[in-house]
Amino acid sequence: MEERLLKVRMQNFTYQNAVKIVFGKDSIAQLPELLPQNLKIMITYGGGSIKKNGVYDQVVKALKGFDFVEFGGIEANPQFETCMKAVEIIKKENVSFLLAVGGGSVLDGTKFIAAAVEYKGDAWDIPTGKVTVETALPLASIMTLPATGSEMNGNSVISRKEIGEKRAFASEFVYPKFSILDPVTTFSLPKRQTVNGIVDTFVHVCEQYMTYDVNTPLQDRQAEAILHTVIEEAPKVLKDPNDYDARANIMWSATHGLNLAISCGVVMDWSTHMIGHELTAAFGLDHGKSLAVIMPSVFRYKADKKGDKLVQYANRIWGITEGSKEEIIEKAVVKTVEFFESIGMKTKLSDYGIEVKDCKNIPAVFEKRGVVLGEHSDIKPQDVDKIIAMSA
Ligand code: NZQ
Ligand code: ZN
User: Fold this and answer.
1) Same domain, 158 and 287
2) Would the pTM count as exceeding 0.90?
3) Considering 140, 157, 186, which residue would you say is the last residue of a domain?
């Protein structure tokens, strides 16, 4: 009896999140006060967007008088091999603080680098979960792409192209010491990345929400507040990419989408992300796109188990109240798909030239890792197969 009750009560949790957020226009200028003095710093960045949009110049200006080296070239879906090159340089140059400047990939790569520098064994053990991270170099970020929430969490996702893997790890040691969020830095985002980021945020919230009720009205309404905000602000940033207010609201929503406050005490289901990561590993599909393709199918496939929450979502987010439970749920899924499509996000595998038959190896990946998905651990490899087939 007690055990059954515990399952439907707010789950016990420990929450600590000490990331200092410095938000707003011109906030990069505050770097000198935020950075540690007398430590050699490495700035990490991606393929060059920061050199085109003026962010690099702002950083270098702010770092006048600091001892620093640079490491560029961290790819979207950061690659293990590239990150390991930074590890070598850090050891040779005695770097003791890392500053990631760019999107989630740069920051995730930097989190991995920070942990790998301190690890004596094969660093691939870190993202594969063979070891628990016990220490890492301190790091901070200047986030230029609202999406991942990486600026305020301890998560990192690392890819290894040559073996077709994309793996995630989490550690309290890789939380940024601070993250600077200047919405102006996001004005230069191509539409593709803006849209990817909006969908990523939306799906993060859903994966912490769309399970079953454990009597957490505050967390539910916090999650719903983020969804409402994203739905309202997304068309504004697409209409005018230089709309500071809309960019600011999207940016802060993304941070809240995955700083894990809304996950406190709730039951989560990260199936869409887990399946999406495999689509990215197999086909190089952008993270946001992989989620847009899979989440509607997860909702439909699990409509029985997620039904009550889907109805709450239908009522509170989309104002849908008419019809049978099944009809309300289906209308809500259609609304979700329409929202994604309305901002220019395609939602079918075929839209990206991917055929279901080419995904046949994906369920076996979960089988091999012994992973089952879903809040009831009832999404088995054969269910993953069906979910992918529904996403054709
Ligand atoms: O590499 P550069 O030249 O910087 O260009 C990037 C990249 O090509 C560009 N970009 C970033 N900021 C820009 C900009 N272009 C113009 N103006 C700007 N202000 O955008 C492209 C994509 O960047 P990326 O960092 O890959 O995107 P995102 O932030 O969406 O990160 C995706 C990665 O994060 C992981 C994903 O799996 C993927 O590997 N995730 C990390 C999570 C976390 N740490 O908590 C959770 C997420 O669910 C996600 O899995
Ligand atoms: Zn994501």
Assistant:
1) no
2) yes
3) 186
Q: Are residues 382 and 283 in the same domain?
A: yes
Q: How far is the CA of 216 from the centre of ligand 1 (A)?
A: 31
Q: How many domains does the chain have?
A: 2
Report d(CA 213, CA 220) in Å as an integer: 9
Q: With the C-alpha atoms ordered 142, 148, 149, 153, is the resulting torsion angle positive or negative?
A: negative
Expressed as residue numbers, the domain containing 64 is: 20-186
Q: What is the pLDDT of residues 278-318, one digit of tens each?
A: 999 999 999 999 999 999 999 999 999 999 999 999 999 99
Q: How many angstroms does the Cα of residue 12 sit away from the middle of ligand 1?
A: 32
Would you tell me how many other CB atoms lie within 10 Å of the CB of residue 358? 13
| Residue 339 confidence (pLDDT) above 60 | yes
Q: Is residue 114 part of a domain?
A: yes
CA of 106 to the centre of ligand 1 (A): 7
**Is the pLDDT score of 138 beyond 80?**
yes
For residue 110, the domain's CATH number is 3.40.50.1970
With respect to residue 1, please indicate whether it lies within any of the assigned structural domains.
no
Q: Mutation test of ligand 1: which of 74, 107, 148 has the most ligand atoms closer than 8 Å to its C-beta? A: 148
| 306/284 same-domain check | yes
CA pair distance 77, 117, nearest whole angstrom: 20
- In this structure, are 142 and 104 located in the same domain? yes
Mark whether 29 and 132 lie in a shared domain.
Answer: yes
Distance CA 1, CA 103 (A): 47
Beta strand spans in the chain (E): 20-23, 41-45, 68-71, 97-102, 139-143, 155-160, 165-170, 178-181
Mutate to test the pocket of ligand 1, among 133, 141, 157 (most ligand atoms within 8 A of CB): 157
